[in-house]
Every structure is written in structure tokens, then in C-alpha cells.
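User: Sequence in, structure out. Go.
Assistant: Echoing your sequence, followed by the C-alpha cells.
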Amino acid sequence: GLKAAYYIGPRAREIFLWAAAKGSPALRRVARDALYLIWRGDPDFTYGLLKDLVARVGPGALRDLRNIVEFFFEISVVIYINHCDRQDVTDRTVELYYELAKQRLHLDVLNTGIFGKTIEDLIFQAVASAFSQPIIDTIMLAEVMPIEQFFALPTEERALLVRAAPLFDPAVPLAEHVETLEALLCGGNIFFNLVGAAQLAIHAAENFAAAEPVIRVLFDRLPGTARLWILLSFSALISRTPSAWAPLIEELTERMFAEHADIIYGETAGLLSQLDILLLPLGLAYGKVGQTMPVIELLLQDGLLRGDGRQITRCVAGLAAVGFYYPEPTFRLLDDLLAGMGPSAYPQTLVPALATIRTLHLDAVDVFMNRAGLSDDIQRQVAAAADTELVRRYIYWLGMYNQVVHSCINYPKIRRQMAMAAMEMLATARQPSEVIAAYTANVFRMLREAGFRLSEWTTP
């Protein structure tokens, strides 16, 4: 319905503004995701709506203030984290935040008593709820493993994060910290695994020649679940990653298929059951440098030649994430696959894969389905299954991962005061609320020091 409203035209903006200010939490969540997908094709529509939201912040909007502020943060954050290496995105985000923080919320006088404690608490809680808590929940993959399990760990075990914190700096020699990386990648809590993966990506993006031997050593000696994290570490969306990544990712992907069928095919429950990005590292590496995806094509053709329906079904499922980011090469792979099969043999993962891609590339998927001669029934199933929930985890989990990698490589202030500082907070806090409060206070301090211009966070 929200996407239909967008197609109606400018007057339908009021529907989105109403959803942002007065909608239920579920409606605002869907509106947020729809607006991000709309932004991908029409950024001016979404940015214009954000400016309208900022303009509504003021004394006359106290009843809706928290909803508006939360919605603004959610939309602006999701756009930025997925496209943080684009200067136009940075510039527009900086402009919007300055207008909201300085001109509308007057955060420069927060804690002075001018607004009164009730309003100041409301603003702090809104920032904590819409900015800090989603960041903490996302980077800790709270939907996969409850955060409480992490805080139940003894502080001596969580001290691993303090030892690992320096590795967010790409200048720190990776080869001198192999034992720390091994402990992270093999850790029993998923957050340790994610920290280790992010740090591998930071070093591999900044100095691949130095990082590759360490990555190979780790992959050769670690068990399958840790190997999966090494492969998935290459899921950074930023455009400027080394082209030399592709051969290594090809090798790691082929070895996972050959040596870890239990993980590949879901016999061992894990991250892939929640977020199937098995082929995404390879798809991203291919998509950034060209339009062919040879190893994925090889896996599909090998499945056809051997009559291995399980391998075909698994690869088509993995193409959902690849196609969300690079639809045209994905369509070519599916074209070749479907040409060699009868409709009765189509893998059951075809409909959800095309539905996932269709959430963003609606017209392109419809053109592909017509060209491939898919039946009306299959086309109806794909259209009915397309839903923002299919891509929510790509948008948030991969987006946040992408932003951590990008900022730690490029922005020392964010690296030190957010990524490294968060490790200390998480290692010593007794419960999640302590981290959220400390993180929010840290954000406010950094905003004041930057004069509420986020571009100051990106200076040396």
C-alpha cells in the first residue's frame, strides 16, 4: 500500500508523513523500509520527506515528537550505512542532521535546563531508542542470539573484546594478532564471530597483500563454522574493495561447498538460516568488477550436469541476496539455468529468490519473468511473495556491517570513539541498558564537539 502511494504521486507524501508521526510501530517499520527502497530509485522523494519531517519538529509537535525523531533517525541511518562511501549521501545526511540537531531540537543547549527535564529526557530517549539501541541490536545480531546471553558471559571472557579493539585500526599488523582473531572467530557467542569478521574485512580492504596470508592460515586451520565467518567477512558493500578479493573468495566458496556440506545445506543450524548470504561475498566481488559470475555459474551448471537438485536449489536460494544488489548478472545466470530445465524441475527456491529481488527491482524482475517464459501462476506467486521483510536483514545487518568496515578504514575519530570505545563498554557493562545509555551519551558528546556537523567526525 505504501509503495502504491508512492506511485500515486506527490500528494501521497502525506500518507508517509502520517505513518511516521502517528502510525503504529509495525506500520512505521514498514514505511521506513519502503522509503529506503524508494530512495534507491528516487532519492529526492525520500530526502524531501525527511526535510518535511524535520520542519515539523517544534513546540507544536510535542505529542508526535518522539515518533518523528525516531523515524528520522531510522531512515537517515539506513540510507547512510548502506551507502556511506558515497559523498552525496554523506553531504545530505550532514545537512539534515545539522538542521534537526541545531535548528530544531537545539541540542546545543540540552542539559542547560532551558527546555525542562521532561523534554530533555524525551529527546535523549528518542535518540537512544532510534539510534543507539538499533545499532547495538544490529551489530550484536540480537535476532539470532539474544543479547542477554552475551551479558551472561563472565567479564573475563568478554575481556577478549578489549584485546581485540586495536584490530579495528587497519594500521595494526594483523599477523601479530592471529591468536586473538582465532579466539574471536571460534568464540561461542555470535558477537565475537562478527567482530572478528569485521576486522578481517577492514584489513583485507586496506592492505590485502598483508591480510591474505593471515586469512589463508586461519581458514586452513579453523573448523567449518569459523571458516564460514571468514568467507562472510567479505560481505562489505563499499564499492572500493580490491579486485584481488575475487580469486580468494572463489577458492573459499568452492572449499565450503566441497568440505562443509552440513553448513552449506543447513544441516547445522546457524547464521545462514537467518541470513542467507552464502554467495553474496562472491556476488559482490564479481559485481564490482564486471558482469560475469563464473564460479556461481559453474556451481549451477555442475548441478545440472550431475542432476544434483540439492546443489541447484541451494545456489538459487543464495542468488536472492546477490540479485538484490546486482540483478542483471543474476538474471543471466537464471536464464541459462532455466533454459536447461523443464518447468516441473524448477527449484522451489526460485519464487522466493525472485520475490526478494523484486522488492527493489520490480520492473526488471517482471521483464525477466516474461522473457524467461515463466507461467502466469509463478509470476503471481513471485508478486504475492515480494515483501520488505525479505530484505530487511540485508538493509540493516549488512548495512551496519558495511558502515563499521568503511568508517574504521577511513575515519579515525569514529574508529576510536565508537568502534573501539564500544568494545570497552560491552566488556564491562552488566546489562544492555548500560551500553545503550553510555553509547547515547557518547554520541551526544561527539555531536557537541563537532558543532553538530557530522562531517567533523570524518576529519583526521
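User: And one key feature?
Assistant: The chain has a mean pLDDT of 89.
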